[in-house]
Specification:
Organism: Sedimenticola thiotaurini
Subcellular location: Cell membrane
Largest sheet: none
Main location: membrane
Keywords: Cell membrane, Membrane, Transmembrane, Transmembrane helix
Number of strands: 0
Strand content: under 5%
Shape: globular
Membrane topology: Multi-pass membrane protein
Distance between the termini: 27 Å
Number of domains: 1
Radius of gyration: 21 Å
Order of helices and strands: HHHHHHHHHHH
Length: about 240
């Protein structure tokens, strides 16, 4: 009887849900296209000059500069612009600490918005269409921040990871905490390198760059270890897909 009532509800709400899903998918497609267009427009040949001009503009804004940069990072990373590019630019503009805080807060906000849009546009439909995703979704929902942190280390665009997580039942709190922790291993060394590239003192520049490269190497080894042993952090019953 419950299945019959659920079918009746599906018939009644079917057209509205289909419009809802198609609208969400259209928005996600437009965001992805916008991100690709913005990547194409980036001034790769004169990136140092572009960063210098941006620095002069943000310097006049005082503390509003990092805030506006965080909002810009949210919009840009939310449509697929690489978050590490924004981290390096932020550190070059505002220094390691302020730049890291501005870029991380903006990146996390952008990831959360994409996550919410993916969930709004077809969470249940995605689980119904890909049965394997439902088991994966249950695993994420039951294990908290650890699976989110591990997924963040995959060599995939943050945009697609946000979409994937948005289609699962992972809790928003776990998504935010796991994403923030997962961003740090790469964001910290990239911030040091970005800040070092604009130092006028050659010795200080070398210190920043060496420290950033050492931490980047350490982060690479950590990520390699997580890829090999991350599954052991999960319960054996979940990992093995017990009955």
């Amino acid at each position: 009887m419950s299945s019959g009532s659920s079918r009746q509800t599906g018939v009644t709400a079917g057209p509205a849900h289909r419009r809802h899903r198609w609208l969400g998918r259209l928005l996600l497609g437009l965001l992805l296209g916008l991100g690709a267009w913005l990547l194409y427009l980036l001034p790769y040949q004169d990136l140092p000059g572009w960063v210098e001009a941006l620095g002069r503009g943000t310097a006049a804004l005082g503390w509003y500069g990092p805030l506006l940069f965080a909002l810009a990072s949210a919009g840009l990373t939310g449509v697929g612009v690489p978050r590490l590019l924004m981290t390096g630019v932020a550190a070059a503009l505002f220094g390691v600490v302020t730049g890291l805080l501005a870029s991380l807060s903006g990146t996390l906000l952008g990831a959360w918005l994409t996550f919410l849009l993916a969930r709004w546009s077809g969470h249940e439909a995605g689980l119904d269409r890909w049965p394997g995703l439902r088991r994966f979704s249950g695993l994420l929902a039951s294990q908290g921040i650890v699976p989110v942190l591990l997924i963040r280390q995959l060599p995939l665009s943050s945009f697609f990871i946000n979409l994937l997580l948005g289609l699962t039942a992972v809790r928003t709190r776990d998504f935010l905490i796991g994403s923030l922790i997962g961003f740090l291993p790469e964001a910290v060394p990239v911030a040091l390198i970005g800040a070092g590239l604009v130092q006028s003192d050659r010795a200080l520049m070398l210190q920043y760059l060496l420290l950033g490269l050492v931490l980047l190497l350490a982060a690479g080894l950590l990520l390699r270890w997580l890829h090999r042993h991350g599954g052991r952090m999960l319960p054996e019953g979940e990992e093995g897909g017990g009955e």
